[in-house]
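Action item from last week, closing it out:
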Amino acid sequence: MASYSELMAQAQKLMAQAEQARKDELSSVIADIKAKMKQFGITAADLGGAAGGKKVGKSKSGAAAKYRGPNGELWAGGPGRKPEWVREVLASGKSLDSYLI
């Protein structure tokens, strides 16, 4: 029978492998979910996750939201890292004006 330390080493190795497998599969899973949401016209709000249990009209930071994303995401437009949907809109050459609340 293996010792405790050997079993722990095996467990840590398996956990590292599992995490790597999760990371490898994540982008295809997200792409599949987005495709199905688009196909059926489902928004993040339909899933109950857009407001995250917070009052509608407030962003994650607590500041009043100024922008609403294509899937109902809220953003206050403050300093710091921009949400992914904002980066995608800007990268496509569009203006955020059409997303003002």
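Closing note: Strands lie at 67-68, 74-75.
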